[in-house]
């Protein structure tokens, strides 16, 4: 069987704020014999909600340029940000279906020597782990079970919808993240308003930070209410909002109450596989992870 390979679209937040997500993702995929390719000269995806709402055509051109980089590598794209997932997958979907838009986009791309061909797909790393690697292989590879760790799962907005494009099962009762969490013997917990936004999306964090933090505080409160030991997400932007947001909430309320560890999904799986928390950047988070690591006896 030939080795599987993916072009890894890093996006903006991962390399600039959370390089540990990149390290964890590469290590976890490599552990299952999946090759990760660099997308040299990739730009912002660009952001799906704000950018696409104001200038859909330019949004499509920029996304298409990123897609052509993967086409040159002859590899499907994987992502660790729901916003990047939304932009690249939706642009790919639109361009494949809309010949007129595709021709207009290619007129612009021709000016920089590129052409969108529609030969690649955009696949979230969660899909690779669940559908290609498989739960059984992850479970078999787990040498450090996360037994007793209760995990609050946050899906994020762009991972599940539009459901006709994402095709992750029911957008109202998703299970793909729960299955991955359970594969490393952690316990996914149900909590109130589980599918609510983290608060950051759609420009809310940039324009109305107090409103964004109210969303974040409510979600964290709901997780804490059912005994969650950490929150995990498939989105680097949601990861940032929960991690930095809790520190901002503490400053706003003038107390240190909020400190629920924030672990990206590949970092969580990486812990189960025995990958070093230092290598995965867990100590670089603003939320403190040592209590969580002590619970699973990680040094």
Summarize the structure.
The protein has 299 residues and is α/β, with parallel strands linked by helices. It is built from 16 helices and eight strands.
CATH level-3 fold name of the largest domain: Rossmann fold
Helix content: 40-55%
Q: What would the principal axes of the Cα set say about the shape?
A: globular
Beta-strand portion reads: 5-15%
Averaged pLDDT, please?
A: 92
User: Roughly how many Å apart are the termini?
Assistant: 36 Å
Instruction: Provide the gyration radius in Å.
Output: 19 Å
Oligomer: single chain
How many E strands?
Answer: 8
Low-pLDDT windows of residues = none
What does this structure look like?
This protein is an alpha/beta fold. It folds into two domains: 121 residues, Glutathione S-transferase Yfyf (Class Pi), Chain A, domain 2; 161 residues, Rossmann fold. Helix 14 links the parallel strand 7 and strand 8.
């Amino acid at each position: 069987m030939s080795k599987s390979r993916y072009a890894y679209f890093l996006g903006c937040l991962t390399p600039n704020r959370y390089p540990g997500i990149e390290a964890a993702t590469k290590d976890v995929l490599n552990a299952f014999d999946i090759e990760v390719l660099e997308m040299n000269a990739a730009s912002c995806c660009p952001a799906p909600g704000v950018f696409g709402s104001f200038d859909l055509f330019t949004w499509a051109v920029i996304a298409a340029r990123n897609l052509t980089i993967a086409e040159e590598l002859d590899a499907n794209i994987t992502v660790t940000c729901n916003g990047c997932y939304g932009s690249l997958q939706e642009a790919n979907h639109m361009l494949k279906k809309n010949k007129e838009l595709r021709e207009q986009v290619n007129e612009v791309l021709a000016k920089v020597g590129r052409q969108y061909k529609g030969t690649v797909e955009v696949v979230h790393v969660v899909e690779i782990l669940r559908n290609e690697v498989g739960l059984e292989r992850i479970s078999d590879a787990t040498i450090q079970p996360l037994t007793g760790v209760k995990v609050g799962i946050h899906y994020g907005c762009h991972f599940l919808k539009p459901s006709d494009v994402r095709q992750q099962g029911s957008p109202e009762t998703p299970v793909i993240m729960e299955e991955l969490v359970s594969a490393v013997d952690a316990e996914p917990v149900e909590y109130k308003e589980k599918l609510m936004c983290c608060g950051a999306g759609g420009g809310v964090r940039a324009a109305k930070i107090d409103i964004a933090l109210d969303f974040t505080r409510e979600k964290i409160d709901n997780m804490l209410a059912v005994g969650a030991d950490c929150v995990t997400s498939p989105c680097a932007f949601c990861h940032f909002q929960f991690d930095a947001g809790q520190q901002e909430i503490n400053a706003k309320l003038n107390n240190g109450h909020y400190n629920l560890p924030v672990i990206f999904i590949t970092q969580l799986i990486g812990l189960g596989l025995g990958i070093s928390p230092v290598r995965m950047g867990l100590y670089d988070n603003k939320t403190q992870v040592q209590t969580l690591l002590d619970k699973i006896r990680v040094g």
